[in-house]
Design goal:
The chain is built from 10 helices and no strands. Helix 3 (53-71) runs antiparallel to helix 8 (169-194). Helix content is 80%, strand content 0%. It is mainly alpha-helical.
Length: 255
């Protein structure tokens, strides 16, 4: 029996788990600039399957990124944000459309692979201290658009691009939030036209998004106190484990 519209066959304990993870993910996102797209699939996929995950996170990201962008607004690099948005808009549409053509197992494989690959990619770019100009940022944004349109957890690529372009600290988080709001709107538009925005997708997105607002401002209050390197290591481990679990589950469906 349904508890609320969109939550058929979901128990109150499962909803509580989603809510707790959503609050934790928003806190992580406010501190490190990414988190919701990497952490939420671990809870959502077992409950609703892989196919609705990217649409759910795209809608909830509006809440989390608006609140994060508001908290860090004075640090936003508007010029670089516009470069990324302009170059990623079309490819984001293409990536989102491609996602709507995937099966449930295919979506799980794609999301899981993206989560696992995001960890070594971020570490490699940081270790090599890659630096790019506006042209490099624009080129990277084109590829980023494809990935952000069709996967969850690809936000780490945008962070790496912004850091490689010379942004640091709060400027990275604020600029990332502004770009992510726009790409989320693009994805939602494509998903809406494709008919994948069901009542369940909207219900979960509103639950996750509503808890993102306090998380962003709570993160800002602790951003100078929490040891981010320890938190990042824990998050990386969680992302890899979650990706492996999702790929394993998808493989079982295909066999």
């Amino acid at each position: 029996m349904s508890i609320l519209p969109g939550f058929a066959d979901i128990s109150i304990w499962q909803l509580l788990l989603v809510a707790c993870m959503a609050l934790f993910a928003s806190l992580v996102g406010g501190l490190a600039g990414y988190g919701t797209g990497a952490l939420m699939p671990m809870v959502l996929v077992p409950l609703v399957g892989a196919e609705p995950v990217v649409p759910i996170i795209a809608i909830s990201a509006i809440f989390s990124n608006v609140s994060r962008g508001t908290a860090y607004f004075r640090h936003v690099d508007r010029r670089r944000a516009l470069i990324v948005i302009a170059c990623a808009a079309l490819t984001t549409m293409l990536g989102a459309y491609g996602y709507t053509r995937l099966t449930n197992a295919g979506a799980a494989l794609l999301i899981g692979s993206m989560l696992i690959l995001s960890v070594p990619l971020r570490r490699m770019l940081r270790r090599r201290a890659v630096r790019i100009g506006d042209a490099g940022l624009a080129t990277g944004a084109v590829g980023y658009g494809v990935l952000v349109g069709g996967t969850s957890g690809s936000g780490v690529i945008l962070l790496s691009l912004l850091m490689a372009a010379g942004l640091e600290g709060a400027a990275v988080i604020g600029t990332d939030a502004v770009v992510s709001v726009v790409t989320s709107v693009i994805k939602i538009s494509v998903f809406g036209l494709a008919g994948v925005l069901t009542a369940q997708v909207l219900a979960f997105a509103l639950l996750i998004g509503g808890l993102a607002v306090p998380g962003a401002f709570l993160a800002k209050a602790f951003v100078e106190r929490m040891p981010v390197h320890i938190h990042t290591a824990i998050l990386d481990a969680a992302v890899i484990v979650g990706g492996v679990v999702m790929i394993f589950a998808a493989a079982r469906q295909l066999l």
